[in-house]
Structures
1.
Amino acid sequence: MTTPETATIADATANGAALALDLRGVHTFYGHIHALKGISLSVRQGEIVTLIGANGAGKTTTLRTISGIMHPRQGEVRLNGQRIDRESPHRIVSLGVCQSPEGRRIFSRMTVQENLEMGAFARKDAESARKEDLERVLTLFPRLRERLKQKGGTLSGGEQQMLAIGRALMSQPRVLLLDEPSMGLAPNLVETIFDTIVAINQTGVAVLLVEQNALMALNVASRGYVLETGRIVLEDEARALQQNERVQKAYLGIE
């Protein structure tokens, strides 16, 4: 098992894939509150990595720091080797990182189509390319195609989650950040959402997944990190974490 103290950048590239996302010694604060205490993690190109932990552990803060909504006081965030920790959120989106936030946060008074088009706001390419990506999203989420002219606020919870992920995909991300995609969904929809995450990843998009349903997250991820009170306390292959007694007791409900 690898611990944060012994993990190195060489470990992250051991399988030959280049790093898509790389956090090194990141410290993030809310005012005087020290939320992230020197965390380091990586996501290789084409990989699903999950970040699990209890409420308040710092999972969402990690994603907000990557997205540029918050800036670390110490440490670095790199995308394909380029530092992005001082960039603005919209610049980070244009560089290839997009987040589907906790609680979906769709534009409830806008139609499904308008929500999806908003996801492409930072793009400077041709309208034809954006239309092609819209078609890909609608193929991935057929329910959205049926509701294109419907207001986002009238959708079910599962449909709103599909819309939030679809909106993020419209930015053409190289790294997709997902914050609690299964929250509040019925079990059958949870399976649908996770199947979709795998399908998105198979197109070459790297995924960093924050998820309370640790078992589902570890089932789809190749690697995982455990975050406790702002510190990464465990890092390992997903299957190994599923067998870890500490993880089983704390996050999988196994005594």
2.
Amino acid sequence: MIVELPSRARIAGTVLLPGGRLGRAIVHVDAGRISALELDPSPALVRSLRRDAPGAIVGSDEEVLAPAFIDVHCHGAGGGDVLGGPAALERMAATLLRHGVGAVVATVSTAPIAQLMSVARMLDGVRRAVVDDAARPPGAELLGLHLEGPALSPVRSGGHDPLAFAQPADLTRSQLDDPLAWQMVRLVTLAPELEGGLDLVRQLSVAGIVVSIGHTDASMDIATAAYVAGARSTTHLFNGMPPLRARDPGPIGAALASAPFVELITDGIHVDSGLLAPLARAIGDERLLLVSDALPLAGSRLRSVLTPGSSARVEGGRAVHPDGTLAGSLLLLDGMVAEAVRSGISLPAALRAVTENPARLLGLAGRGRLEPGASALLVVVSTRGRLRRVLRPVPSAA
């Protein structure tokens, strides 16, 4: 449920504070931004808010206020995706906001590079249109594009189309030849063991594009070298990579040891629920990213969907490709938070992993933290991590 906040508002209750801890506070909102944060307000002050004029909200003891979520790995929602054009992207963005996601890096699977660059230019046009058209329905902000491929390992392709795979040198040339289209690319998943892979990591990192290691068969040494070269994240840990072995740790060992950030899909399908809490502790609260890896099937009544080079369908409560291999997720980020908490990950850690940490990964200012100057697009979740409301500020008319 989306609740519109007046231009000026005060919200009292338990809040997610920067650094991932819970505390009591009054959050002051002014024209869509947080203007002040009063920590540890007295009971008398909170009681006075209950009697105040419109614009004062007091949360219950079973609720936590947090920034809207940020999803850095989402292929679609509500039947829409990044490949379907402006109308499909609008459906995706609107569905995501209803599920608490305030900003998203729209993810596209492996496709020919020319098609990916066409998608990037289209996304730029859509983002400009949203900014210029205040009458459009509210939706998650499109932060840019996440290219999950095409420089991936052919032996760890998952549901990606091997016929569309490219070498790192092909992406290197594309980034140099089409810099305007690449301005919309915020994140690239690649396999660093491919020839020229570490050079591409360096080039993209210098250009300000986040590199994530995924769909890879790299050794621990090569994956570690990729983090040293500038890679910042790890795409859906345990999926699209060899298993962790004591004498051959591979990319999982490198991620746990030295990756700045590590993605987890916490639907209990991509990684067993019993492993999620121990993994989160091993990764650490400051490095953990919860992502949806959601397909357009998520948040919709669709039972099947076309994806580049393949198709996915719902079967036995999960999304699978025609050959039966696991596809993306059917849960959006609010569901991932709830499942993470149910599996034993603490609520503050789960919330930090969808707010402050992805904002740090992307270098976003004014998002992911409850602090003065930050966006006042907020969510209210239960102490069990279930989304209850999205608080959307409505600026006063000029």
3.
Amino acid sequence: MTLELVVSQGRIADRTPGAIPGAAATAKVLQACTGLVPKIIGVPSPPKFDDWSSSLPEATDTLAALQAELSNVLERGNTPLIVANTCAASLATLPVVARKHPQTTVVWIDAHGDFNTPQTTDSGYLGGMVLAAACGYWESGFGGGIDPAKVVIAGARDIDQAEERLLRQAGVRLLSPGQTTAESVLSAIGDGPVWIHVDWDVLKPGYVPAAYAVATGLLPETLRGIFEKIPAQQIAGIELAEFEALLDDTRDATALKFMVDAVLPLLTASRLRVP
């Protein structure tokens, strides 16, 4: 497999100022350690606190371009490494995965369930509705097709009550931080393809800044240990999201080191070839 690096830089429901520069900084570090030249999608714009019904139409061009680029990467037979500003970028990516690799298990590594719908959301935040849209529980305009029985949310610990009921009804598998181990993840994915999504708020606060940090969580070395065990040939794609850059060079460099160390097993040339 050959990796291709795709980076989202257009606003996709961003409510905070650090996610777009955070994605850019992540891409720069990944380029340095892999030699991959990033494909940039979208144009940065300021954050604002709006409802999904406003932020989704505003993000249409960025999401459509991201969806088209991912389709191209998969058509070339390559493995996407996507760096996104927000989880809402997955409104574009997951439906493509469902079409191209319908047997894929989605390992959604996140403190949150992201399974709200327009009817259940309290915050109105588009990023909290991504998986529900991808699984067909509401229409985003970018498709669905993901089988909820093939979704594993790992590191989950901040889930709304109505959202949890919907997750249980849908058959999504939930792993708390304590249940999130290499063994449990490998058991969930079996021997089929896997799409790996990492929202950095899955980590215990103090390692990687995230806009929606939640107490407790995984350690970077736990994440790395999981990735070391996933067979390279099963990886359909990798998605990294929600690093909230602080625009403090020292602190951001420290956070980026934790991030790269955690995902390095997915990137080494012995597992996935880079051009």
